[in-house]
Amino acid sequence: MGRGEDTKDEYVFKRDEQSSIRLNYHHLIIKHLCGYLIHPSVPIQQSSFRVADIGCGTGIWAIETAESLPKSAQIQCFDISTEQFPPEGAAPANVSFHEHNAFEAFPESCQEQFDLVSMRFLLTVVNESTAATLLRNAASLLKSGGHLQWLEPDMSTTTLRTSKASLETAAVERMIEMMKKPSADADTRWVKKLPQIFLFQGLDVIQETRHTLAPGYRVFMSQTQLMALEDFCGKLEQAGDLNASEQVRREIDLVRDEMRRGVTADTEHVCVVGRKL
């Protein structure tokens, strides 16, 4: 399933080995945060359960999920890029990978074929004007009565945490603002409106579950944030924007120093589950 020639890939990070390590490490933290791969409100059929993973990245969610499902389950993974897919034959036999831009309609052969669609961490490539298009395309994959789960950080909840009140926090505060708007077109406020977007696309909202990271895990999340900033710099350098990259790298040094002293950014994550009527 290819993408059109005029498709523009807005991903703000690289897709090399280090980027994949970051995604996999982040996945493990999020699995601890949520305590599930598939939201508990989603019924799992014991036979012929079909799952679509949109924006699958390295495929780690799909691979872990396949291990927890009946052997008869099938998981199809979709991403705009194949660069972080595992090597052929590395994933379980019931997990397959396909190149597709989810902002474009899926082929008819895929529509109304899935019991569950999973979407996660699309914050940097989605804004309020495109969220509805993406959700409409994703929902088209669902059978009647099928479920869609979408997990994102809600940046409007981001709070500074410090181990001591006297600590300097200016660099981490600037990092938070950068995370809220990683590119000129980015707008993360749509996450708070996910339940309404579900309803507008004809999905009955089953659950809206919010998750807060345990204090002892905040340092691990901070490490992924630093890795993301490094990744962002690498993408700027790939694009030839060396001045911007140099500025961000200076900020990274300041952020790293504050985090080592005990400053973290704490963000709630929200998982919205909808059912197709």
Q: Any descriptors?
A:
7-stranded mixed beta sheet, single chain, 7 helices, 277 residues, alpha/beta, two-stranded antiparallel ribbon
Mean model confidence by pLDDT: 91
N-C termini distance:
27 Å
Largest sheet: 7 strands, mixed
The strand order across the widest sheet is: 3-2-1-4-5-9-7
Provide the gyration radius in Å.
Answer: 19 Å
Helix-strand sequence: HEHEEEHEEHHEHHEE
Low-confidence stretches: 1-7
- Helical/strand content category: alpha/beta
Number of strands: 9
- Tally the helices: 7
Shape: globular
Helicity range of the residues? 25-40%
Beta content:
15-25%
What this model shows, in words?
The chain is built from seven helices and nine strands; from the N terminus they run αβαβββαββααβααββ. With 277 residues, it is α/β, with parallel strands linked by helices. The strands form two sheets. The protein has a seven-stranded mixed β-sheet with strand order 3-2-1-4-5-9-7, sandwiched between helices. The protein has a two-stranded antiparallel ribbon with strand order 6-8. Helix 2 (60-68) links the parallel strand 1 and strand 2. Helix 1 packs antiparallel against helix 6 (218-238), helix 4 (170-180) packs across helix 7 (242-261) and helix 6 (218-238) runs antiparallel to helix 7 (242-261). It is globular and about 55 Å long. Residues 1-7 have low confidence and may be disordered.
